Amino acid sequence: MRTASCVELTLLMLLEWRLRHGYQQKKSMIQSLMLGKVSKVFLGQWISEPEMEKEMNDRYPGCMAGRTMFVIPFSMGPIGGPISKIGVQLTDSNYVLLCMKIMTRVSPHLWETLGDNDFVKCVHSVGCPRPVKRKVMNHWPCNPERIMIAHRPEQREIMSYGSGYGGNSLLGKKCFALRIASVIARDEGWLAEHMLIMGLQNEKTGEEKFICAAFPSACGKTNLAMLEPSIPGYKVRVVGDDIAWLKFDREGTLRAINPEAGFFGVAPGTNFKTNPNAMKTFQKNSIFTNVAETADGGFFWEGMEDEVDKNMAITTWLNQKWHIGAPGKAAHPNSRFTAPASQCPIIHPDWEKPEGVPISAIIFGGRRPTGVPLVFETFSWEHGVMVGACVKSEATAAAEFKGKVIMHDPMAMRPFMGYNFGNYLQHWLNLNAKPHKVPKIFHVNWFRVDSEGSFLWPGFGDNIRVLDWVLRRCAGEQGIAEKSAIGYIPTKESFNLTNIDLKWDELFSLPKPYWLDDIRESRRFLEDQVGTDVPKTIWKEIEDQEKRIQAMTD
Ligand code: TSX
Ligand code: MN
């Protein structure tokens, strides 16, 4: 039993609550903690220890009865590395065990170095004791009505009940490497972020630069991490596609490791055109979840229509007979591949380097159909942190909304924040100090459309042109950028446009009314959701940006 106190609080993720109650709550996370009830704020839900205790006692006693419990010792990051951390997961799911063996470094040798309290404690149960009372669908034991994913950040503990799927059951990933790790990182002076890591080597000079990029879901982060450039000039290699742990070394260089050992990627949309390297990665030793199956035992999902015989008999993820062109979906939209990173043809040779790779640029982005240009460079670290705090993206609509909505997803961390978002922003700001050489911060948008709704930018392999400009800015190249109200914008002459036809002016236009509305809406978001915890520096950046926009010529 633990005693209750105001600081001992539990971060709760109740699935149904996630998106629903967002904009109503006017209190900051800290204020709502005092109410002693679960607060339904947008940036994470919190519950008091005694109430948590009650919820747990309601679920866990006897929850694994009749099942095999597995004990999984795992390392996030290369075993023994200076940035790596150890976890132990208990689970009654063999699916979770198999996925954890791909996604993390599972080794019995971890017991040899493990102390009493230097590991993250992860407990998981599908919440389906035997003999089962309900019908188990498709051999998939779970308890969806009672799902509860809880974190005790101070105790470095994770408790997951009722789900047997993905991020809610593979506790090393979102729960540990983002929610718990962001709290450890705050305490220890580093960052745990929802970012890809990739290397770009200049083929002429041999010089290589590494970048990190954070995007909300449905922006193609995995596709970007494994980019096949459409033009010569760079060799692209992936270090990680989802999570980065970033730490300044003694020289003040920011270094990143990928704490994971595999890719847990969204399957639909992945094919030999959009991501050939992912396709080659999961041809063996991989697990597919909620995808469809072809009659010859292969995998299938939406987006693979050109890669499978059109007469092929297919069984959907719900075990129904189906064929290409038939109504309905073959695979669940959130179906996944789970594949070892080591099998990726463009995995970086240094991807397991214990001290990480040096980061030259941080890129934020979102799915922004209107107003937001292809790329801009922020004015400073502080301006970049503000831009990151205001990241928004078009999301597939929640049940109560019609069509698509633009949702805030600050730093792409909205569902993964382990502590107060205002304090998190202050922690970012504090890193710009003494020996630290902070990287430049950029914002990209691959998804701007014209008045007919057609994409203005070809995306995919052509994104290398954007990264080329980013790296040239990092190298200090002058005369390739122009100052605007929101940041530095590339000059058309400097940008590599060989063999593409573009509506450049439309792609980079900055409509004054749009941007005025945007900055005011962002201010309202921070006021409503973070309140008095927003750092003064961020308010100053917002004010300055509004003034710059006001001064724009219409
Ligand atoms: O992943 C994407 N990226 C990043 C690639 C490195 N997608 C897929 C998003 C869903 C996960 C993109 N979709 C990208 C992109 O850069 N851009 C777009 C939009 C787009 C879609 C199709 C075309 C052009 C742009 N063109 C044709 O289909 C011919
Ligand atoms: Mn992710």
From TrEMBL:
- Domain Phosphoenolpyruvate carboxykinase C-terminal P-loop, by residue range, is 190-548
Task: Tell me which cofactor or cofactors this protein depends on.
Answer: Mn(2+)
Using the record's annotation, list all stretches that form the Phosphoenolpyruvate carboxykinase GTP-utilising N-terminal domain: 42-186
According to its UniProt record, what is one Pfam family this protein matches?
PEPCK_GTP
Q: Highest taxon of the source?
A: Eukaryota
Identify the stretch annotated as signal peptide in this record. Answer: 1-22
UniProt cross-references to InterPro entries, sorted A to Z: PEP_carboxykin_GTP_CS, PEP_carboxykinase_C, PEP_carboxykinase_GTP, PEP_carboxykinase_GTP_C, PEP_carboxykinase_GTP_N, PEP_carboxykinase_N
**Family designation:** Belongs to the phosphoenolpyruvate carboxykinase [GTP] family.
Instruction: Please give the subunit comment from the record.
Output: Monomer.
Q: What is this protein called?
A: phosphoenolpyruvate carboxykinase (GTP)
Q: Which organism is it from?
A: Mytilus coruscus
